[in-house]
Design goal:
The protein is an all-alpha fold and 172 residues long. It has 11 helices and no strands. The radius of gyration is 18 Å and the shape is elongated.
Length: 172
Amino acid sequence: GKRVAIKLIESSLAQEGDPLALKAVSDLAKNGKSVNLRAEAMQALAQTNDPKMASTFASALKDKDASIRRAALSGLSAIGGPEAERVLLEATRNTDDKGLRLQAVRSLGRLGSPAAAAQLEQLAQDKDPSVASSAVYTLAQAAPDRAAALADRAMANGDAKMRASVVQIAGN
């Protein structure tokens, strides 16, 4: 009851852009006593669409709890901006957590920027088939023209792995 009311007030204040409320919600996201409370605070920060929150989300990508890392990726794709894009690009390249990497690929696609599309094209050639497939699918959603050009090149080069990805996506 009381905790939910406090969360709603913090979320509402954060959406209004009140610097004190944003700091309170950011502190809660970093230091909340429960994982659920921290994840809720991350969601509230994502709703602000404030690119200045990118550093909070970037720090949360190192959290030991997977739900916090997932909330951080969602937050980065929600707020957008150059710093969020930089962090997402990095997350697609430099993490050993396969689930986090796959979500970073999908989150990158939501940004819709040329740099994001270029990274998705590179990831379409990834040695991990699930990452490559996810990158092709995400690119098809985010930049269909670039995905079509990628598919054309793959077909011309006889890339069997890429053909399989393209056929799978075309079937969906």
